[in-house]
Specification:
Keywords: DNA recombination, DNA-binding, Plasmid, Transposable element, Transposition. This is Mutator family transposase. Required for the transposition of the insertion element. The protein is an alpha/beta fold. It folds into three domains: about 60 residues, no CATH class; about 45 residues, no CATH class; about 240 residues. Strands 5-4-3-6-7 form a five-stranded mixed sheet, sandwiched between helices. A two-stranded antiparallel sheet has the order 1-2. It starts with a helix and ends with a helix. About 25% of the residues are buried.
Amino acid sequence: MTISKELLDELLTGVKRPEDLLGDSGLLKELKIRLMERMLGAELSAHLGYEEGKAAPPGQSNRRNGSTTKVLKGQDGAFPVTVPRDRDSSFEPELIKKGQTRIDGIDDRIIGLYAAGLTVRDIQTHLLDLYGLKVSPDLISRVTDAVLDEVREWQGRALDRMYPIVIFDALRVKIRDADSRTVKNKAVYVALGVTREGVREVLGLWIAENEGAKFWLSVMNELKNRGIQDILIAVVDGLKGFPEAITAAFPEAMVQTCIVHLVRHSLNFCSWKDRKAVAADLRRIYGAATADMAAAELDAFEEKWAGKYASIAPAWRRAWPEVIPFFAFDPAIRKIIYTTNAIESLNRVIRKSIKTRGSFPTDDAATKLIYLAIRSFEKDGRNVREWFAARNQFAIMFGERFAA
């Protein structure tokens, strides 16, 4: 639709200052109100079957019945709109629905601010300062609570039959305990799958106070109930009971310790001046061509560093059964497993959202924000780089399991 120059000239008659156009009583705001009221009147005319000022059709008992004024909140502040009514209250306007008090995506704006890590008080201040909107904490909570319905639907959605790789990872979040009223460090676990087509997909998130084999078995059973029948490689961070829980649910899954986590755990024992040298020597272990060569590199590492950092080599030996599967893979697959770029980028997005929060009042509050961070993560590129080479390797190594 094109607005003629003549009409624009007529509309701008008397507009001499910026505030005459953009201010609270300016032309744009008034024009918006008048257009909305005109559209509401047209909707009522379509509903009744006759235009205002004209006679009603024969047999039409419903009539116009005055109007009511409601205050709407939008991105340019609050403003009154006159909404026409009908006699039998059957009119349901589409432009401004019954009970609606916000327009212009104000709900999305609140959710966006919440997803950025702002607290309810921060959101209140932001909306008041920028848009002149006085929004109650209860309204903000109701808007963000609507995310929980989306979370439940997302958490219960059907999953693919098979995932070549599923990476399980955790981060710690401070959440207030409802019973003791104390703030506790709870683990938030995320499962990130890679589909047969090489697309990253967050399969779910779980908050646990006490993680163990029983907890992880319940997670695995949930994934099975949602449709997963097979996982080719499960990458874990070495938690006790985790490999057993995975193989109990998916007996053929190959459990691989996350090399990045193992390296980080090792470096925690080092002084800053030795970290670079220790990391380089650890790289010789997981960068070896075969498991036997890696074992020889581990012996050499222990011989060099046992006197100074005696706990590092034993930690690798304890995890060795879940480390050596890694060496059976082609470099195309190894890179996807040990670099864990996907899970690391996801964690960065989550930590960026929660870093401004000292603690969360409930598990639900933490779940809402973390889910919104995941949603933001999945809007970006989800394809695994160089997947074509890895896919061919999977097809050869796992045969019918990959093709099923």
